[in-house]
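Quick start: what a row looks like.
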Amino acid sequence: MTAEPTTSRSIDADRDTVAGPAFRAAQPQDVPAVVALVESAYRGDASRAGWTTEADLLEGQRTDEAGVAELLERAESVVLLAELDGRLLACCHIERRGATGYFGMFSVSPTAQGGGLGRQVMARAEEWARAAWGVTAMEMTVIEQRAELIAWYERRGYTRTGVFEPFPYGDERFGVPLRPDLRFEKLVKSL
């Protein structure tokens, strides 16, 4: 795992004296909480409280403890956590891939969505990737049918590439598709 840049705290513009989230790299003991957060943001009825749900596209799991633990063991890979008052509210995975960083597993608690936390997490992840690895771009893959989510990323400077990857049909580690036409599109942002 890569060394952690300094922890960041910011002032929430909507609350005068309350500090923003604390950011840190996940440790092995955080794996169950990360899995629970990711699942709550994307799968099942609980995910419908937020706007990032994939419940209409996929059933089953989004990730599992073995998958998250494997991300923590990779060189130049970090699962970044955002906590407030000791409560895990958001996370993402960032990884160095040559001169490019990869951004994935981006999850914000459904009850914390829509208040700017996601923007803070994304900005911190981009800052981390630049500082720790000197990357010049960040990339991600997003299910093509997630038009609202792709539009959100575009408003944050990501561009659609027209490069697609197939959805891993038949591999239930990534969920059980509810439609036959899912695929991922690669998005890129220069840093």
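That is the whole record. Residues 1-18 have pLDDT under 50 and may be disordered. The first helix runs from residue 31 to 42.
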